[in-house]
Every structure is written in C-alpha cells, then in structure tokens.
Amino acid sequence: MACRMLESFDTFTTVSERWTNAAGAVSAPAARTGIQGLRNIPGFSASGGCRKTFDAQGTWIIGRAYRTTVLGGFAIMGTIDGATVQGDVLPNANGTISLRIGGAVVATSILSMLINVYYYMELKHIIANAGGTIELRVNGAVWVTFTGDTQATANATADQVGLGGDVGTNDTDDVYIFDGTGAVNNDYAGIRQVAVGLPTGVGNSAQWTPSAGANWQNVDEVPPDEDTTYNSSGTAGQKDTHAFTFTGMPAAADVAAVQIGLRLRDESAGVSQLHRIYRHTATENNGAEIDPDVTYQTVLEPLNVDPITTAQFTRANVLAAEYGYGKTS
C-alpha cells in the first residue's frame, strides 16, 4: 500500500465526500497552496476531528501543513485503534509540542511554534509495546521523539488516522497519509505540496455519451456539479481519457505519488463496474474494478509508482499523461 491518501482540499466543498468523519470547512483563506484549505477542525480525538478509516496497520505517517491563531488545548493529529487513541500530538500554550500515548505525555519539544505561521508537520507512529517510536518533524527537522511503549490498546495497530485543530482559527492544507508497507512511500516524505490536475482537453478516447459538449468539459468542474454535466455509458469496453493540466506543481518537483479520483454513480441498481485509466506513451494501465452505488461517491486510488514504467513518477510523465475511466461491465 504505502501511500493511502493525498489531499489538497482544492476540488470539493463537502468534506464528507472524502473523509470518514467530516469536520471543519473548506475555505479559500485557509489555503497554503492551491485555492483552498480546511479551516477550523475541532480537536483530534477518537470521536472528533477530521478522520479517515483504513485497514489496520502498525505504522502510519501523516504529513500536513498547519497554522493556528491560538496555541494550547487540543490535539492536532494522531492515530486511533477502534475507539481509543493510540498516539497524538498536543501543542502547548507556550508553543512547545508534546507527544502522547493513550493520553499520557511521553515527550515534549524544546523548540516552539508561533501563531499565524504555516508549518509543515509530519507525525510517524510505529506502534509497539516495546521498541515503538512516535516522532514529530516540523519543516523537515525532528522536533520531538520518543522510543519505547507506543501502544495504548491490546493491538499494535491503528485503523484510523486523523487531523485536529487547536483553539482559535486553525488551517490545514497539503496532506499526505502513508503506512509502513511496501518499498516506497513508507517513511517521511518531507515538506510537500499536493498539486491538482483537471481535464483541459480531448484525449485518445471519448467513447462515453456526453450530456452536452465535449466529454472532458463534463468532468472538469470544481466542485463537481453532479447531474448537471456528466458522461455516461451502458457499453462494456467504452472509455474516456482526457488531457490534463496541473496547477501549482513546482518546476523542480519530485513526485512521491499520484492519486486518481473519480466522482461517480450508477444510474440504476445492479452490477455496473468501471475502473480508472492512466495512459502514457500510447500505453494504458487500468485500476481495480469499482462497483458504484446509485448515489454519488468519490473513489480515490493512490499510485505509488508509475504503473507503466514501474519506476518513480517523473514530473514530465505526470504532465504528459492522460487520465480517465473505462466501463468493464
């Protein structure tokens, strides 16, 4: 697995489209990069904050840009096993940051953060009764770390990770979530920006039926306009691929992962499957089959390596590729 989710908050307005427990509001003033960020998440806890449920893993790495107007009071990120917090990050009123296991402080930083400044924070939690690690890096530097018992429950795993915010106005942007598996994206990614790509032109295939205009024009809205403009197909084997433009990608960026997102629904109850498509140099790679519901859902598929070259993505390949979807049944 490794990369489990990337989030820019730039392409939607309803947080529940992507997060298991929706909290905070998408906001333009909250943006660090792109056009939007997430503002005013309540404190992180087993029942609060902005949380995402995954399969249980023993190692999680969470990266996010964060700023706040007030310090001290609420946890801002962490891991959860079932209904219990395994570990979390707690800013203090003096700007220092504490790490907690099961709600008990195990280490506190010497360095301190300031209000109204965006910091890039990365939490790595290796969960174990002995020899585990919980560590926070800020702008690429280790601020606070603890090695020992980092397990608060009977399980050496967590099945939820999440974000929270301190008191006052708090902002979040450019989030990545990795686990500890696989050969890539299983450790700190460093200071990151999540750039967004949207359809901007005709690709190699335009076989689905457009509600109006060109196929790519029906899937380029931010936020998605659902049944106002769309493409549809009742024929297995039909596919659309679109030319994309990415905004905000730095010129010298290395690409840790690519996430392809589909906003989709089935027009009638029953089995109707499709998959995402990544196309480059006349070669196509298809994702796992998706069986959509009759109501709209967002499906995200992170790719850790270029599925065609099987090597790390290059900026040139990401920009030159086409992205789309195909109907399988």
Describe the structure.
- The protein is mostly beta strands and 329 residues long.
- The chain has one helix at residues 315-320, and strands at residues 3-7, 25-27, 37-39, 50-57, 59-68, 77-81, 84-91, 97-101, 104-108, 119-126, 132-138, 141-148, 158-163, 170-179, 196-206, 209-210, 231-232, 239-247, 258-264, 274-280, 283-286, 297-303, 322-327.
- The chain has 2 domains: 3-179, Jelly Rolls (Sandwich); 196-327.
- The model has no long low-confidence stretch (mean pLDDT 96).
Q: Layout of helices and strands, plus pairs?
A:
Blueprint lengths: L2 E5 L17 E3 L9 E3 L10 E8 L1 E10 L8 E5 L2 E8 L5 E5 L2 E5 L10 E8 L5 E7 L2 E8 L9 E6 L6 E10 L16 E11 L2 E2 L20 E2 L6 E9 L10 E7 L9 E7 L2 E4 L10 E7 L11 H6 L1 E6 L2
Antiparallel strand pairs: 1-14, 2-3, 3-14, 4-13, 5-10, 5-14, 6-7, 6-13, 7-8, 8-9, 10-11, 11-12, 15-18, 16-17, 18-23, 19-22, 20-21, 20-23
Intertermini distance? 26 Å
Instruction: Report on the biggest sheet.
Output: 8 strands, antiparallel
- What is the number of beta strands? 23
Helix content: under 10%
Summed up, the helix count is 1
**Rg to the nearest angstrom?**
20 Å
SSE class: mainly beta
- What's the CATH architecture name of the largest domain? Sandwich
- Uncertain residue ranges: none
- Supply the CATH class of the largest domain: Mainly Beta
**Domain tally:** 2
**What is the chain-wise order of helices and strands?**
EEEEEEEEEEEEEEEEEEEEEEHE
CATH topology of the largest domain: Jelly Rolls
Q: What characteristic shape results from the CA principal axes?
A: elongated
Q: Tell me what portion of residues adopts beta-strand conformation.
A: 35-45%
The average pLDDT value, as a whole number, equals 96
